[in-house]
Amino acid sequence: MAGRVAADQKVPRPRKTPALHEAIRHLAMGPLLVHKGDAEPGVKPLWQGFARHTRFVRRVQLMRLMHALRIVWNDVS
Fold it and tell me: Out of 12, 24, 38, 43, which residue is the most buried by the measure of CB atoms under 10 Å away?
């Protein structure tokens, strides 16, 4: 799928910080669905994007916790 990056690839940082309306669009619709003529997203896509982002952050936190527990467990063994 275009736009996806494999886990072992580095993602280059953007040259400039996106404007607020660009960040909101990205959160609401994802990077692949934004077109020049699109209207600003409504409440539902914003809420869905926020929920998607929140799930991602929670999964990363869980993976970090599991990794930390594995390190501690290996040190005890």
Answer: 24
